Amino acid sequence: MIDFDAEIEQVLDGPPSRLAFRALCAALLRAGCPERLVSRCEERLASWPDEVREASWSWLAALKAGHSKPTWRLVRSLSPQSVRNGTVDPALPDPRSCAEVRGVTRLDLGWYASEQLEVLAATLDHWENLRSVRISGLTGSDGELVARIAGHEALTRLESLSLVGVDEDMWHFEKPPFSPPEGRAWQLRHVGLRAPDLVNLLNSGRVPNLRSVDVLVCSVQEALDLAARPELARLDRLAIGFRCGKNGRQPLWKPYFGNVIDEDDDAAEAFFARADLTGLRSLVVRGTPMGLGREGLGERGVDAIVAGGVLRRLTELTLELLPVGDAAIARVLEALDAERMEKLTLTDLVATDGTATALAAVGVLPRLRHLDLSRNRLGAEGARQLAAGVRLPALEHLDLSGRESGSPYYARPDIQPVGDAAAEAWACSHNAAELTHLRLAATGLSSDGLAALMTSERLPELGTLDVTCNPVGSWPTALQDAPVWRTVRSLNLADCGLGDADIRSLASTASAPRLHSVSLAYNSVGSQGARALAAWALLPQLWELDLHDNVIGDDGLTDLAMSRAAQRLLELDLEQDCWNPRARDDRKPLPSEVVDPASFPSLDAIFLGMVDEYHGSRYSCGFPTRVREEIVSAPGTRPELIAFLTHLETESFEDDEDDTGPDEDGDLDDHDFRTERAARHAELFDEARDFARRMIEGDIGWPPPKEPTQGTAAGYG
Question: What are the backbone angles phi and psi of residue 673, rounded to the nearest 5°?
Fold first, then answer.
C-alpha cells in the first residue's frame, strides 16, 4: 500500500521548484485529494515562493480543452506561453468563468503576447488576488492595450509590473509609452519600464514603496533625467540596460570580442556619476548578444560603475553580455566588498584565466553563495585557481558552462575550455563542501572528468549536475555506486554522445534516493536503451524524463510503456527532429501503449511526433490526422494527451502516404550532428582555447576595418 502522506511530506521537505510543485499535485491526485491532505499542503506551501506554484502550459491547455483537476486551488502562478516547437498557446483564462485561476497572484504572459494582454486588459478587475504581471516584447501596436492597463484601478493592488526587461534589445520595435493618470498611491515594489516612463512614474509620487527596477536607457539625456530622481536612493535592486546605439557587425559563426557602443559608455558615465544609489544592494547591468559575441558598454562604462562607488555597498552583482575583458573585470573585483558579496554573476564578458587570477587575489569571499562565470573563456588553469586559489566556504551554486547550442542540428556550442581539469579540480576542492548546483555544460568534459565528479567525496550536498553538450562519449559501469548518487536530484546528460550500452551502464545504478529528473536528449538512445530504462530501479521515482531526439524504435517505446514502472513520471518528451536519419516513420501511429493512461499514470505533459527545430514548426504529432482526431474524440483519452493534440500548429503536418519527410532527395545522414560529434567538439575546444590565448595576449582582432560603402565586407554580416 502506498503511503501518500509520507510521499507528500517528502516533497514538501525538499527544495521548492516548479517540478516539485507538480509532483506534489500528482501525489495528491493519486491519493484522491482528501481534504485533510490538500489543506495540509495549502498550509505548508505558504512558505514556498508563488512563482514555483505554477500551472504548466499543459495544465492550461487541458483546462482549455475542458479538463480541470482539484489541485488547481494550490496554483498561484500562470505562464501560458508554450516554448515548444509547433505548439499553440492556450488563451489566458477569464477568472469570471474559470474559478480555477481565481487564486493566482502572478502572471507571466511571455514574449509578444498581445492576445494574452488583451484578455488581461478586459478582465483585470476580476483577478482579485493578482499581485504581479510580466510581459516581454511589447511593440508599438500594443499601445492601446498598455494605455488601458495604465488607467486601470486594479493596478493599485499590484506589487510588481514588468513591461520591459533588460533582456530586450530595442533593435526591432519601439515600446509603447506607459502613462498612468494621476491618482492615489500604488503598492508597487517592482517595475520594469523604459527610462522616460520610469522618470514620470517616480515624479508622480504614486510609487512610494518602489524598491526594485528594471529599466532600459536609450540616450544620454534619458540617463541624466533618471539619475536626477532622488527616489533612486530608496532602491535596493536595479537592473539597467543601456540601448543608446547599435553596431550589429559580426563574423559569421566565429567567436569575437564584441562591439563596444560608445553611446552606451557615455550614458553609463552620465548615470553612475550622478545617481544616488545609497540604498542599493543588487545591481544588474546587461548588454545584448550579437552572434557569438556581445554588444554594449565597454571598459569605459564599467569604469564609470566603479568610480560611482556603488559596488562597495552591493551584496549581489550581475554583469552580462558586455565586451569588457579581464582588466575591467579585475577593477570591478577590487572595488567590491568581499565580506558582503553573496551572489556574483560575470557572464559573457570575454573573461579568461585573468579573471580567475583576479578572484584569487581577493583571497576570501566568506558569504558568496552563487558564482556564475559561464559563457566566458576560462581555461584549465583558471578552473584550478577558482577551486584552490580562493576561499569560498559558503558556495552553493557554481556555473562554469560555455554557451549551449540549442538544437545541435542547426547551431554550435560556444565552448568555455576548462575541460576535465575543472571537474578534477572541483572534485577535490574544499570549496565544494556546500555545493548544491554545478553546471559544466559545453566545457569539453569527457568521461574522465565526469567520473572524477561522480566519485568525489567532497560533494556531499550536490543536487544538480549539468554536463550538457559535452563529448562524454561513454558512461563507465564503475559509476554505478558513485557517492554523488546519494544526493543528486537532477542529472542533465543531453548531447553527451551516449548510446544503448551507456544507458545500460547508467541503469545499473540501483540507489539514488533523491533523483527525480534525468535528461538524455540528443543522444543515441535506441530500443535497447529504452528497455534498460524500463527495467531501471530508479525509474519509478523519476518525475521527469527527457528523451528528445533519440532513436528509439516502436518496440523500445512499447517496452518502456509496458513496464508500468514510471508511476510518478510527470513529463515525457519523445519528439524527434526532422533531420534525424533514424526518426520513426511519422505516417505510422505511435504504439497505443505509449498513450495508455496505465503506462504513465501521473503524466501531466507529453510531447510526441516530429518537429523542425530550425523553423520552430511541427511535421507531425505521432499520429496521422485521422487517428489524431479519433483519439481526441474518444471518451477514455487522457486529458494530458488531448491537451497536446488540440494545441498544435497543424499547417505543416505531413501524413500523406507518399510523403517521406522533409526532403526526399536529401541525405539525412549529412545533416546528423551525431556522425562527427566527437571531432566537432575537439575542433570547437581548440578554437575556444586559441581565442582565449589571443584575448590574454591582447590580440583582440576586432573591430575589423570599416566596410566599404557599396556591398558588405566578405565574411561579415
Answer: -60, -20
